[in-house]
Amino acid sequence: MNTPIRKGTFLVTGASSGIGAVYAERLARRGHDLVLVARDAARLGVLAAKLTAETGRDVGVLIADLTFKADVHRVEDRLYNDAKITGLVNNAGVGGSAKLIDSDPDELEALIDINVVALTRLASAAARGFVERGGGTIVNIASIVALAPELLSGAYSGSKAYVVNFSQSMHGELADKGVRVQAVLPGVTVTDFWDKTGVPVAHLPKEWAMCAGEMVDAALAGLDQGEVITIPSLPDIADWNAYEAARKALGPGLSRQHAAERYRLGEQQAA
Length: 271
Ligand code: NAP
Description:
This protein is of the alpha/beta class. It contains nine helices and nine strands. It has helices spanning 18-29, 41-55, 69-81, 105-133, 154-174, 193-197, 212-224, 237-249, 265-270; strands at residues 9-13, 33-38, 59-63, 85-90, 136-141, 179-184, 189-190, 210-211, 229-230. Strands 3-2-1-4-5-6-9 form a seven-stranded parallel β-sheet, sandwiched between helices. A two-stranded parallel sheet has the order 7-8. Strand 5, helix 5 (154-174) and strand 6 (179-184) form a beta-alpha-beta unit. The longest helix has 29 residues, at 105-133. The structure holds NADP nicotinamide-adenine-dinucleotide phosphate. NADP nicotinamide-adenine-dinucleotide phosphate binds next to helix 1 and helix 6.
């Protein structure tokens, strides 16, 4: 049976634009109060005022640059200590499309700081708070590139593969403690992300691109259905289930006392 999603306040990171702004709007319409997190104070202020006027919900703003440790700590404190918070949408993130040898190492580090380090710290603070408070919901925004390292940059797809593994492990650890965990793997979604990543969305095949509203509605439907992994575009869930079954079938062979036969050539030659 699915643990129902508790009313209460959701903290949404990266709420100043794109997918995060749509989550904020949809969650407010579902009756949740909100804490909106991002760097752009003006955009957050406009969205908060609009959502309060339209839905009557209490919408607060927390300005933070999630590549700055002190700012991440402030958001962690809020998640852990504010008893009204029952949900986290760990959405803030940046992309990358440059080849590794053409990439600025400081930009790669900043990508990992926001997509991996901040996401992990915020999930950890929320998980501790939610367990102490008797439950909660954590949504981690990954990407289909977690399953497709051939697309975009290795650092970006690697950061999103981390989010998938991390979320599956979190689910295993927290499900019996009343904490719901979902990883969402959007495909191409029409937001400012693509201009910032250096690949205008208009240059991509139109049949790949979903509007952010449809993507978030599908992700919330997956959350309502109790999914741990939601891939909004994937037509047949049986394909994901087969992928997971194949991964789990590797289990008995992954750690053994002796190397596989094909790696014991030296031994055979010496004999
Ligand atoms: P977006 O419109 O560019 O939104 C990114 C959000 O992250 C903004 O609100 C931005 O706010 C925030 N952000 C960026 N750097 C930040 C920082 N240093 N500190 C705090 N907040 C920061 O892109 P989006 O498409 O909505 O992306 C949202 C998430 O979806 C990301 O994790 C992305 O990887 C993932 N995703 C997107 C797609 C897609 O096709 N669009 C596909 C798969 C996954 P400020 O600039 O105001 O700080």
